[in-house]
Amino acid sequence: MKSKELAGIEKAMRQDKRAEVRQRATVIRLLHLGHKPEAVAEQQLVSVPTIYNWHRLWREQGIEGLANKPKTGRPSKATDAYCRKLEELLEKEPSAFGYRFAIWTSDRLRAHLEKVTGILLSEGRFRALLKKRGYRYRRPKHDLSHLQDQKAKKKAEKLLDEMKKRASETISSSSLWTK
After folding, report:
1. Count of CA atoms in the C-beta half-sphere (13 A) of 133
2. Smallest Cα–Cα separation from 32: which of 64, 60, 59, 65?
3. CB under 8 Å to 20, separation ≥6 — which residues?
4. Rounded to 5 degrees, what angle do the CA atoms 40, 44, 47 make?
């Protein structure tokens, strides 16, 4: 291995943001140091053919060959139009669409999107889509302070403070037991 290649491997081990590239660069470095592929495979908890495959990919494509490739598979049902509708929904209250509830849940969103677009995603796929788009569900914080009588609240706080003071005055300091 040339010193330039070795420097690239070591840089990838330290600085690459992709965990798989850091791991695979470590494997290449260990092989360069003379470790047997079997020992490296055992240390990295992968199979020996995987070690040979990573080494081949690195020889053929360099550091970028160590990165994960995009997975193939069925295209997503969630089209661009579906995603635009989702974003429109999340910007408005459910009442704007004639619903009597005040909060969008993932099930309610999915049901409405199915009605509007004709596309039904599974619960898991829908949650993955939300995550991919950077949305997180947070439980609403119910605050009933606007319904409270502020004068009565202040009076109750004063009373509570007085009761705490009286309780601390009556406790005997000679006893370690309190009730």
Report:
1. 18
2. 59
3. 66, 67, 68
4. 75
Q: Which token pair is 60?
A: 């053929």
CB neighbour list of residue 117: distance below 8 Å, 6 or more residues apart: 79, 81, 82, 85
Q: Tens digit of pLDDT for each residue in 90-145?
A: 889 899 999 998 888 889 999 999 999 999 999 999 999 999 898 887 776 777 77
Rg over alpha carbons for the chain, rounded to the nearest Å, is 31
Kindly list the distances between the CA atom of residue 164 and the CA atoms of 37, 161, 173, in Å, as whole numbers in the listed order: 71, 5, 16
Per-residue DSSP letters for 14-64? HH-S-HHHHHHHHHHHHHHTT--HHHHHHHHTS-HHHHHHHHHHHHHHGGG
> pTM above 0.85?
no
